[in-house]
């Protein structure tokens, strides 16, 4: 099975052809919004960080910004900074250039003469890059070029029984075809981490899986908090999930049955053709999806028993539920109904194949519900972890 995408000069393959207007900090975010709104084909996001951060916290922000610019769905980037933030323009540009060699433009609001002049120049840069991007022709590529992100949010018992196993089947199919699948949400391994660790390809990977889980728990305990007091969430409980372990056992089904090849830190670049990997992310959905996008995922599949509107500025997010009532209520937000697995009208193999075909169609350009609605919410993890 193949898909049609865009070859980038750094060798990666995109399934979208956006121009990113990248705010280096919160103080540049309104300016990037104004620029992107004036240029069809440009995307941006509201960066609430980029300044007043301690070093480890700032590094997470830098990794996401650099990773977004390097994501293969991006043709080129216009970086906009205020000029006095911690994430200085030279630091941001250096971080991007360490990951990719794609087109890059720079605007510093304080140096160019204020917001209006920055917007004027930003619109010019963005239009130039969009015009260049429009000249690219799609080419055919094998599915092995895809990096798939997997996520779950607003889980209920149907997530572990249907939606997540279907995503796991998808993950196994992509891995069998030579692609890469990312299992995320470290807090949602707790209680099931020993099962994942047994699937590690090497002793080093085994130890890293246990390390990231224990590190997360200890980070919360340092400030007198306990992960089980915030997870499962109120929505999870209302849906019928009773314990963190129950939630975790459902969560890890998204990883299918393949061995775990590697463990990546938050927002670090993920290798192509690596099979099943883990990324150390919080369970917070926008922050976790942002990390996988920064790691190079071109598409994310997201399960939600209760229903979720989550999207992303640069990667399409496919939403799946195992709850037929949720699918009926939230058709505007959900792309696939996995409940036939529970009711015995479709098999895991049939639904997994159906989802794989949907991923291929999205990779070829078909819009997800979140894309059609224009949902671009995102967040960036903080050095002080949260559930």
Task: Count the beta strands.
Answer: 14
- SSE succession: EEEHEHEHEHHEEHEHHHHEEHEEHEHHH
Overall shape: it is: globular
Radius of gyration, in angstroms, nearest whole number: 20 Å
Low-confidence stretches: none
User: How many separate helices?
Assistant: 15
Mean pLDDT across residues: 94
Strand content: 15-25%
Helix proportion? 40-55%
Kindly report the spatial arrangement of strands forming the biggest sheet: 10-11-9-8-12-13-14
Largest sheet: 7 strands, parallel
Structural class: alpha/beta
N→C terminal distance: 37 Å
In words, what does this structure look like?
- Helix content is 42%, strand content 17%.
- The protein is α/β, with parallel strands linked by helices and 387 residues long.
- The strands form three sheets. A seven-stranded parallel sheet has the order 10-11-9-8-12-13-14, with helices on both faces. Strands 4-3-5-6 form a four-stranded parallel sheet, with helices on both faces. Strands 2-1-7 form a three-stranded antiparallel sheet.
- Helix 12 (324-329) links the parallel strand 13 (317-321) and strand 14 (336-337).
- The longest helix is centred in the N-terminal third of the chain and has 20 residues, at 115-134.
- The radius of gyration is 20 Å and the shape is globular.
- The relative contact order is 0.16.
